[in-house]
Write a structure and sequence with these properties.
By secondary structure, the chain is α+β, with helices and mostly antiparallel strands. The protein has eight helices and four strands.
Amino acid sequence: MYKSTFNISKMDCPSEESLIRMKLEGIPEIETLDFDLENRKLTVFHKEKNPEIEQRLDELNLGSKLIETVETKERGEQKNITTQTNILWIVLAINFGFFIIEITTGFLSRSMGLVADSLDMLADASVYGLSLWAAGSTMKRKKKVAVISGYFQMVLALLGFVEVIRRFTGNEALPGYKMMIIVSVFALIANSVCLWLLQKSKSSEAHMKASMIFTSNDIIINTGVIVAGILVFATGSKYPDLIMGALVFLVVVRGAMRILKLGK
């Protein structure tokens, strides 16, 4: 058994972990992948040396660098897989459910903040879904789904930017700040439940820790939309909602670009 340790300078969230897992899948020598996002390190346990491991990591352009490859009697551990998978399915369902709720209420209330947050929820659901589906799908099919998902999110985000610009320059009615605040409060509660479930698992594994980081970021975005709604009410201006929407659309574009890397 060999243990190869890589430093991956741009690995800091679940999308990069999912990216790497799917990129390395199909290499028969690999037994286990151990992620350390805090220190941006990946440890690959593999039966035989295979230069394709390093080659595939380089193709992702995440700043990967091989630190060392040594022989070892260790084997990477995969603990509580069923429990973790069940939790991730729940988190996926909550994210997708609130994508539907927020995009619907966003259009009804004319709030770009809610629409943008709904796309962020969709981006999160895509990352979790692609990860969960990874074990039961062929590489070709997964890459195809990743490309479709990435381009879909990219197109929606770009359309969102166009709409933000149009509303900045036009005489638009104020967004419905009451609906903005109420829906975002429920989204905040939902993401807090997701974070509680992830923390309750007490998992020290990297993909669960990364999911906690992802969900914590969602809570920050939800809070931002609530603040934007309050500012719309306090100032009588549409601009806080539009600025918040533009910021979240940038987050969605960044996530879409990461997902598109899976298709390479």
